[in-house]
Amino acid sequence: MWGKFLMLLLFILTEFADNSIHPPTSEPQSKIRLVLCGVGRIGQIHFIDMLTMLDVEIVAIVDAVPGAAKKLADQIGTKSFASLQELFDDGSVCTVCFCCP
């Protein structure tokens, strides 16, 4: 329940964000480019939920546990990072879903 509520909240925030942060694309309805941060129990539940959402694209996965993010990222062919700093240095962040205590 809360996962879907948070995803809806992220969607609303993304839709009404300043266009200088999220420039318009040529697609009529672009996907939400999402980073999943934390792949523990709740993170894996959100991961599965996000895979079923047609308007969400998981662009990266972050987890401090060595190999945890890479394992899930390899399943869907996306980037993985061991820290938020690595993610921010990469520069591909748009929206982040934090699934950690």
Q: What are the salient characteristics of this protein?
A:
single chain; about 100 residues; alpha/beta; Rossmann fold; four-stranded parallel sheet; 4 helices; about 40% helix; about 20% strand
What does this structure look like?
The protein has helices spanning 2-15, 41-52, 68-76, 84-90; strands at residues 32-37, 56-62, 79-81, 95-98. With 101 residues, it is an alpha/beta fold. The protein has a single domain, classed as Rossmann fold (3-Layer(aba) Sandwich). A four-stranded parallel β-sheet has the order 3-2-1-4.
Report a brief summary of the structure:
This protein has 101 residues and is of the alpha/beta class. 42% of the residues lie in helices and 20% in strands.
In CATH terms, what is the fold-level topology? Rossmann fold
- CATH homologous superfamily label: NAD(P)-binding Rossmann-like Domain
Order of helices and strands: HEHEHEHE
Principal-axes shape call: globular
Distance between the ends: 18 Å
- Tell me what portion of residues adopts beta-strand conformation: 15-25%
Approximate helicity band: 40-55%
Structural class: alpha/beta
Kindly report the average pLDDT value.
Answer: 76
Instruction: Give, in spatial order, the strands making up the sheet with the most strands.
Output: 3-2-1-4
Q: With helices defined by DSSP (H or I, 4 residues minimum), what is the helix count?
A: 4
- What is the CATH level 1 assignment? Alpha Beta
